[in-house]
Amino acid sequence: MEGNIYENNSAEEHTFATLPSDQEKWCDQERQAGRQTPQRGGQRRPHCHLYCLVTICVVLQIAGLCAWICMYSKNNAGIQDLDAKVSALKAKDSQINAGIQDLDDKVSALNVKVLMEISGWKRFGRKVYYLSKTTITWEMARVQCITMGATLAMVKTEEELKFLANAIAQPYWVGLSDLGTEGNWKWLDGTSPASGMWTPGEPNNAGEEDCGEVVKKLNDVSCGQQRHWICEKSSVI
């Protein structure tokens, strides 16, 4: 019996020895917590670093975008300013070209006027007139003007008559006759002269006077007479 008791006691002691006490359990939990805590801390640090890196990248991108916008705005303003200057230069160039063209026109007109004066042509209104230095019959004068690309002068207004009268000192043939119908005086274009342009008492048809001449006013004279002659044509300037 005693032997069994001791054996039972030994078995209980062995059981108690193998079962952990509360203190040992607590120590084991602490050790496990101690091993897990660094692991959790180590897992959080990489996430923090990633967040910081992403934030820095975003900030850098925003800063770069702002810099690009500022640069674009400055460049765009510079381009607009340059365009405005180019437009102003073009406008000024157009004005200069217009001035040059106007000056060229005036020089050309002056040259034409000088050439006309030298060659015997005179300008009045929208016409130019050639005053001959020789004398021929009325019909020859008409043909001569045609060969010059002109026609015998047809004096239609008082102003034109005064201009020609002041330019000449002797009779000149003009493009006026009643060769078609006696007494029906016509200019070469078929129009009739104004009555106030005739010399008083003319036309009188004294001695078959069928052609017209001008001195101070219009006069009828024989077409076979020798007279200076006046050609006219439209002015090109």
Q: Can you walk me through this structure?
A:
The chain is an alpha+beta fold and 237 residues long. The chain has a domain at 123-234: Mannose-Binding Protein A, Chain A. It is 57% helix and 14% strand. It has helices at 2-18, 22-119, 138-147, 158-167, and strands at residues 121-124, 127-131, 151-152, 172-177, 186-187, 211-214, 218-221, 228-234. Strands 1, 2, 3, 4, 5, 6, 7 and 8 form an eight-stranded mixed beta sheet that branches. Strand 6 and strand 7 form a beta hairpin. The longest helix has 98 residues, at 22-119.
What percent of residues adopt helix (DSSP H or I)?
55-70%
The major β-sheet equals: 8 strands, mixed
Q: What is the fold-level CATH name, i.e. the topology of the domain at 123-234? A: Mannose-Binding Protein A, Chain A
User: What is the second-level CATH architecture of the domain at 123-234?
Assistant: Roll
First and last CA, distance: 161 Å
> Given this structure, which CATH class of the domain at 123-234 is correct?
Alpha Beta
Q: Say which CATH homologous superfamily of the domain at 123-234 is assigned.
A: Mannose-Binding Protein A, subunit A
- The proportion of strand residues reads 5-15%
Number of helices: 4
What labels would you give this structure?
Mannose-Binding Protein A, Chain A, 4 helices, rod-shaped, alpha+beta, 237 residues, eight-stranded mixed β-sheet, 57% helix
